[in-house]
C-alpha cells in the first residue's frame, strides 16, 4: 500500500508581503488509502490531518522551511526540520505497527496513536491545557447556570430547550468517540472527522436535521473556545464551505379552520386529561405563540386595555420580546375554564396525545412527506394527524390569520417575526388556498373591458 506524507500551511497567505505576514500553523497530511463512502455512493479518500503545533511565516515555506539569510534570526531552521522529521517518522511508525497487526486504522484512530507516540518525545509533548471534552463539560455547566450567555447586543440566558440540545449533543459526541475508541481534541475537528461523524449518524438512520443539530452544536462550541483567554485552539476548519449543517425541509403542516373546528367540537368529557391537552393546543392556535410561551400563560399575564380590550401580555422566551395578544371569545372561554391560568403540561405529552385527539376528530387526510434515509430521498404518505405537534398550533394560528386577511405586519407583532420574508416562509399557504383567497378579491370579481 502506497503512503505519502506532506506538510502544508493552514493559511498560505499567497501574495502577501513578508512584512505583513503572520505565522500560520503547519499541518501534516498522511495519505494511506483510507476512504469513506459518501452519501451519493462515491469513494472519498480521507488522509490523516495532524496539527504539528509548529508555526511559520509563509514566505519561509516551500514544502518544508526554506533557508534564507534573513530567516536565521527568526527561527531555528535546523530544529524546525528536526521536529517535522520526528512527526513524519512517528506517523509512519504507528501506521506500520497497525498494518503489521493487519489493521487499517481510521484517521481518528491513527491520530490518537500518533499523539501517544509523540508524547514520548519531550520537545513535542503538548503543554497542559483544557481539552475539547473538558471544554464541552464546562460550556454545558455555564449555559445551564447562566454564567455563559448568548452573544449579541442583547445578551440573555440560554433557554431550557437550548440547554437540553447541548446536553444531548454531549451524549451523542461521547457515544461517537466511544465507537471509534478515541478521545478527540480541538485540532482533530477537520473535514476527515466531519465525513466520518456524518456517516456514523447516517448509518444509525438519523435524519439530516438531527445530524445537522449535532454539527451545529459542535461548531458553536468550537467558536466559543476560540474566544477564551487565551484561545484554546487555532483550528478554523469548521469554517470550510463543506463543513455544513445538514438540513432537510421538514413537512410542516397547519390545520385549516374546518379542522380546528373539528378539534373544538370533539366531545372529550369522558377524559379530563385529553380535554386538557386539546385545550392547551387550541390556546396555541388562538395566540400563535410557541409552546414555551403559550404553555405558561397565567392570570398575571391578563390585562384590559383602556379601550376595554382584554389581552394577554407576555415576553417571548426565545426572543425576549414583549407581545400583546387580543383575547378572542373562543380563547377567553378556555382561559375562563382554568381561571386564566392554564394547567401545566409538557410538550412531549402534548405531542403524544394531540395525535390521538386529532385522529378521533377525523383529521385523517393523507399527506405526502419526503424524508432522507441512508442518503436516499424517500416519499411516503402519512395521515395528517400523525404530523401534528405542539408547533402546529402556532403555525396554524399565523396561517389562518393571514388567510383571513389580517395585515402581515400586524400578525408579525403577535408571532414575533422580525421581517416579512421570514414570516411568509413560515406560514403554510397552499396554491389552492391562495387561488381561493384571490378569488374573493374585488379584482377577480370585476368585469374588465377587453381591449380591441
Features:
452 residues; hpI Integrase, Chain A; 15 helices; 12 strands; alpha+beta; DNA polymerase, domain 1; three-stranded antiparallel β-sheet
Task: Summarize the structure in words.
The chain is α+β, with helices and mostly antiparallel strands. It has three domains: 126 residues, no CATH class; 119 residues, DNA polymerase, domain 1 (Orthogonal Bundle), CATH 1.10.150; 186 residues, hpI Integrase, Chain A, CATH 1.10.443. The protein has 15 helices and twelve strands. Strands 1-2-5 form a three-stranded antiparallel β-sheet. A three-stranded antiparallel β-sheet has the order 8-9-10. A hairpin with a 6-residue loop joins strand 9 and strand 10. Helix 1 crosses helix 2 and helix 3 runs antiparallel to helix 4. The protein is elongated.
